[in-house]
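Cont'd.
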Amino acid sequence: MQRYSGFGLLKHSLTHHENWQRTWRNPTPKKEYDVVIIGGGGHGLATAYYLAKEHGITNVAVIEKGYLGGGNTARNTTIVRSNYLWDESAHLYEHAMKLWEGLSQDLNYNVMFSQRGVLNLGHTLQDMRDIERRVNANRLNGIDGEVLDPQQIKEIVPHMDCSDNTRYPILGASWQPRGGVARHDAVAWGFARGADSFGVDLIQETEVTDLIIEDGTITGVKTNRYGDIKAGRVGCVVAGNSSVLAKKAGFELPLESHPLQALVSEPIKPILDTVVMSNHVHGYVSQSDKGDLVIGAGIDGYTGYGQRGSYPTIEHTVQAIVELFPVFSRVRMNRQWGGIVDTCPDACPIISKTPVKNLFFNCGWGTGGFKATPGAGNVFAASLATGEMHPLAEPFSMFRFHDGALIDEHGAAGVAH
Amino acid sequence: MFHIYCPHCAEYREEEEFHAAGQAHIARPLDPEACSDKEWGEYMFFRKNPRGIHHELWVHAAGCRKFFNITRDTQSYEIKEVYKIGEKPSVVAE
């Protein structure tokens, strides 16, 4: 792999940047792999990268029906934080946060991870009780967090309406300074380039049409372009389409796929240098390096696979943002889109074995999978390498919906990601 | 934006008046005490979540507040039919 550096940039400038190596190969798949990963989004590519890097398993294929990182990885609002309430999820997301902190160096690819801090606003007394509880739980888990009063919030975000003269006055917030944003495409590309450099085959524009299961054990996958591909183990990382693949494997998942919409404004001058989220008025906003405001909120209430949602959801989202930032009321919106998120009843993911031997699922991230990309890939890779779930992934078994050991994160995860 | 026909009001109204309540035709086990953890968990949480024809429960939350069923394509979002609770859908997936 050609390493990127300032010197390399200088060297290539002498030849008018015409001799850069391709970022990854576009190989024809082999007939057999140790591990096949279905889904070439951030999580799938991170899984392949850590399988190769940390476990020495390089006979791996990532099969993607579209192009790499073209699904929810390209559609999220890029927020990264780890301030979750319960120990299980706090450990998992903090594991991801620690990987984020060294990711650009590790991948030799600038993922533009910017720790600009994340504010979660409280607008009611109950919000504030929950925030204090969550911040204290975070600190006990070694995760940074502070409870701020409106005056302190005003110092961080001077343009936000922190006065009493609003319908839902801001009473305080939780503040995670290590949270922030990252460049979503770069994350997928960086992991893809890293995985490819270890010899992982990235197979694009190839759809897995069926799973080959013999005596309750998966032995391979059927594809639309390359026929059958044998596999020792199969990891399924297909977000919104998880239920569709699970059905092919003969079981159901506790998931519902919903449209989640987001929108960006026209680029404006720097005005917001942190991430503001509010569960109560239901919206979140940050400003990208290009200058556009990146805005999102909740899912559309119905299930859907159409990668688009309804207009009222956008309207509610923008109302919430204008409630927080009256100064944004005349900013024009530029683009709007939808992704399909696989939501779990307890708002926590599934990283799990399945009723089919050697078939593993990483799904159910709902509205908050992006922030976990390196961590989820890391623990899922460890599970695929050994066949036993990584200790951090253990509590996220799909069978928790049988035994009742749910991880109820709606308080921390209900809206804002 | 959906335009949904409420079979109770006998009118088309906008989506905002309604609330989607998930998969339809989930029968509560007749004897919950006799269910295994697996059976109860599957009744509570596991869903079909198909890409294609889906039978789902909706409520006319800002209208008559009554429940009814919709058969809808989750890929094209086309509403195939609306029918009352207790009735059987006429459009089903192959």
